[in-house]
């Protein structure tokens, strides 16, 4: 995929966002018409081809207290420096970077260096954010970053979460030891599975100014001060996310340099950001599609198959959670091990039905898994981001209470509870597999619960999932299929016993005892079955 911004976009940016020029190896930015009180954000799109380029800022007005020069690139890490020697504490490297300038001079110089060239030209968005001297200074109370003032964010990610590190702001007359500046964090999701460069830059553009951040962004719930400048976000792989921070003091606000992460490696998009990509995962998803639909519409009819499926699912879930604690297995190794052990769980559960033939006992795995899924849905929908549920004790007590309530209600109406569980679990398995092929994030309902149980510090992570067109369509379709599956199974069950007969019970019911008549009377009724 080309990473060049199209010609029309470049022309529009030059006309709408300011006057700029690229002279040889230099980029010139004219701030004559930019003031803190009104037009305070300069934007410019350009292509960078040289290894080292000079950025000249000229005609800085006298009412400018300080400004932040931002550089945003699509894939390449760039280095922005105050000087060409890249001395200590004078530069920053990344894809979303920025440096602050607060001298009273009317001009300034910066240097832009390309570290590793992925393409001949690097598409770059240059932004200059202008502020008054009394506005809060983003990253002004820096404690650990390399620069004295660090208005940028540092982004890192794992398979489970995205980590955002920043530094506290400062303001005129405020001590960093007694900082009372209000800080708010926002995030904006880009389109799911969309790595288009225009989408990338449009997302950044929406999160550059304070007003736009509050208009387009989703506010992150407040957290304890210990974790505010080190925030964790649940990773939704392949969905771009823009992070922005606003600092406010005495009704004056300023914005940090926005940062973007997709939770994966953009260079290896197909391998790192989209799945499934291996034959094994395609096979697993195919099984989920098939058995999900069968369970949704015929789970109660094929009772023994459903018992095996529930035993298998329960075994896979418990085993996967358990061996994840070890941390020495790859994802596919954990999945294969879980499937093998889950297979034996399924056989054991079939044996329990064959031996005892008690429906309420046999369908309890269905009730447990249904409660687990419903509790996961509730926390995924927003409850997990409520501050009191950052406590693992509060989270798991509430989670288990929701599960217990589902089990009790389902046990009170055993047949209907089992049919509902089959419809809910089967349809969810179907859409989970479908999401891997068509996009969507419903699979993260269970994945986030798994992360909460196994990933250290995930209790402090922001869940706040994307809920875009694909997710809305899939959610509505999921509800429709659950209702339809429940209706079909209840209709097919009319006039039939609530549960099929147990073979062992039939044999015992037909076994002769000392009270069995030696000669059966004429017109004897058929033997009674034990259900």
TrEMBL record:
PANTHER family: TRANSMEMBRANE 7 SUPERFAMILY MEMBER 3 (PTHR15937)
TM7S3/TM198-like domain ranges (all copies): 285-490
Name of the protein in its database record: TM7S3/TM198-like domain-containing protein
Membrane topology, as annotated: Multi-pass membrane protein
Lineage top rank: taxon: Eukaryota
Main location: membrane
One Gene Ontology term, aspect cellular component: plasma membrane
Keywords carried by this UniProt record: Membrane, Signal, Transmembrane, Transmembrane helix
Subcellular location: Membrane
Bilayer-spanning residue ranges: 280-298, 305-323, 335-354, 366-389, 395-416, 428-447, 467-488
Signal sequence, start to end: 1-24
Gene Ontology biological process terms in this record: negative regulation of programmed cell death
Keyword Transmembrane attached: yes
């Amino acid at each position: 995929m080309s990473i060049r911004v199209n010609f029309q976009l470049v022309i529009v940016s030059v006309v709408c966002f300011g006057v700029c020029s690229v002279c040889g190896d230099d980029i010139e930015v004219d701030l004559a018409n930019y003031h803190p009180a009104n037009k305070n954000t300069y934007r410019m799109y350009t292509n960078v081809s040289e290894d080292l380029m000079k950025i000249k800022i000229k005609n800085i007005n006298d009412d400018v207290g300080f400004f932040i020069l931002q550089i945003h690139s699509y894939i390449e890490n760039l280095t922005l420096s105050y000087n060409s020697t890249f001395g200590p504490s004078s530069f920053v490297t990344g894809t979303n970077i920025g440096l602050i300038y607060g001298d009273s001079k009317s001009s300034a110089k910066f240097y832009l260096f390309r570290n590793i060239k992925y393409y001949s030209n690097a598409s770059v968005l240059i932004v200059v954010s202008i502020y008054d001297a009394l506005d809060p200074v983003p990253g002004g109370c820096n404690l650990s970053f390399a620069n004295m003032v660090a208005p940028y964010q540092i982004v890192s990610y794992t398979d489970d979460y995205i980590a955002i590190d920043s530094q506290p702001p400062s303001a005129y007359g405020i001590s960093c030891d007694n900082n009372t500046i209000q800080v708010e964090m926002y995030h904006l999701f880009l389109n799911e599975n969309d790595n288009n460069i225009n989408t990338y830059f449009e997302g950044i553009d929406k999160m550059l100014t304070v007003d736009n951040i509050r208009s387009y962004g989703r506010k992150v719930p407040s957290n304890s001060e210990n974790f505010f400048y080190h925030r964790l976000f649940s990773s939704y792989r392949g969905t771009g996310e823009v992070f922005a921070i606003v600092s406010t003091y005495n009704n004056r606000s300023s914005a940090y340099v926005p940062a973007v992460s997709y939770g994966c490696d953009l260079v290896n998009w197909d391998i790192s950001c989209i799945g499934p990509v291996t034959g094994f995962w395609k096979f697993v998803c195919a099984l989920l599609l098939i058995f999900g639909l069968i369970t949704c519409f015929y789970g109660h009819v094929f009772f023994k198959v459903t018992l095996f499926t529930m035993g298998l699912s329960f075994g896979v879930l418990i085993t996967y959670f358990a061996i994840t604690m070890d941390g020495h297995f790859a994802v596919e190794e954990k999945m294969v091990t879980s499937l093998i052990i889950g297979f034996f769980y399924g056989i054991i559960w079939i044996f329990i039905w064959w031996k005892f033939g008690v429906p309420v006992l046999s369908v309890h795995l269905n009730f447990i898994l249904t409660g687990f899924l419903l509790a996961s849905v509730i926390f995924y929908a927003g409850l997990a981001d409520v501050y009191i549920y950052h406590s693992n004790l509060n989270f798991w007590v509430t989670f288990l209470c929701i599960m217990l309530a589902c089990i009790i209600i389902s046990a009170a109406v055993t047949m209907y509870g089992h049919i509902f569980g089959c419809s809910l679990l089967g349809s969810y398995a179907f859409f989970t597999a479908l999401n891997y092929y068509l996009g969507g994030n419903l699979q993260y309902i269970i994945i986030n619960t798994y992360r909460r149980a196994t990933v250290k510090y995930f209790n402090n992570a922001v869940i706040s999932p994307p809920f875009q067109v694909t997710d809305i369509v899939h959610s509505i379709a999921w509800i429709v299929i659950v209702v339809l599956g429940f209706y079909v199974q209840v209709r097919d069950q009319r006039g039939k016993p609530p549960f099929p007969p147990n073979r062992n019970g039939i044999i015992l019911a037909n076994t002769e005892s000392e009270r069995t008549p030696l000669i059966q009377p004429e017109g004897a009724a058929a033997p009674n079955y034990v259900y």
